[in-house]
Amino acid sequence: MNTAQCSDAPSSEVPSGVFSSSPNPMPSSGPASSPRPRSADTVSKWPAHLVIVRHAESQRNIWKEIATSKGELVYGGELRDMDVSLTANGKEQAVTTGRRLGVEFKFDRAFVSPFQRTMETAQLMIGQFPYAVEVIEDERLREIDFGVLDGLTKHGIAHLHMEEKERRSKLGKYHHRPPAGENYPDVALRLHSFLGTLTREAGGESVLVVCHSVVVLVFRKLLERLSEQQILAIDADQEQEVRNCSVTHYAFDSHAGRNGKLILSDFNRVYYSLATLARSTPIKAKGQQAES
Fold first, then answer.
1. Whether pTM exceeds 0.85
2. How many separate domains does the chain show?
């Protein structure tokens, strides 16, 4: 399987209210069109555009932030991770992002993680498009499984699973697999399969993917052939933290590599103002203690 690598692209001014971690954000002067193919074979393999969006702000994002700041051990109550919905801010993020993406791209289909927060994000975004899009739920895009550590803050992990904290320190974040959970290579295996589906079914198309932060990072590792050290360096950089409802865009370049490649055009761009959105007030989950 051919994979993509980053390349420099002509820089363009970032529109007001739009934030991006990419040094060369993509232009927003109209719907993105497919690049001119070098041959019929090159256009038949990869999508013309692959746009990967992390879900908008969810209730669980806020619960974790509050519980961690208070030194609590757990967050989320009895609600399953896959059943967590968006906050009011998250819904606004998705609507704003959808309005912009609907202008900049003409998507042929959307693949979405089946979690509630990703499905809500996709529905709200696509609802702003001036055209219909086929939506496909795909389990391979689901959140990484944290196993026995799910719903625990860093304080909870240290208090309840000290042995896992020590094992993670020894193995590193990339390779550590908690009991009943997944590590980064596990996620990479299912995304390898997903990319194979794209090359078989979506050649030359514009494809939207709505998923989770770790999934976004593993897409980058696979498509750009990043090392463990490189992807962990991105993950550890607060300036590159994958934001809620952020957009990562790959465009096919028929002249890159031997047979054409997907090239990173934009990473972690958001279309809403980080400064003006009010802090969300979380809805208490069932089984979760009320805030003091």
1. no
2. 1
What is the residue-wise DSSP string for 223-267? HHT--HHHHHHHHH-GGG---TT-EEEEEEETTSTTT-EEEEEEE
Q: Which residue, among 255, 259, 133, 113, has the nearest Cα to 199 in the 3D structure?
A: 259
For residues 11 and 230, the answer to whether their CB atoms sit within 8 Å is no
For residue 144, what is the domain's CATH number? Answer: 3.40.50.1240
Q: Is residue 168 part of a domain?
A: no
Q: Which backbone phi and psi does 115 adopt, to 5 degrees?
A: -65, 150
Convert the pLDDT of each residue in 190-223 to its tens digit: 999 999 999 999 999 999 999 999 999 999 999 9
User: Domain of 106?
Assistant: 40-58+85-148+173-269
Instruction: Establish if 103 belongs to a structural domain.
Output: yes
d(CA 151, CA 161): 13
* Residue 281 lies inside a defined structural domain of this protein: no
Sign of CA dihedral 261, 32, 102, 24: positive
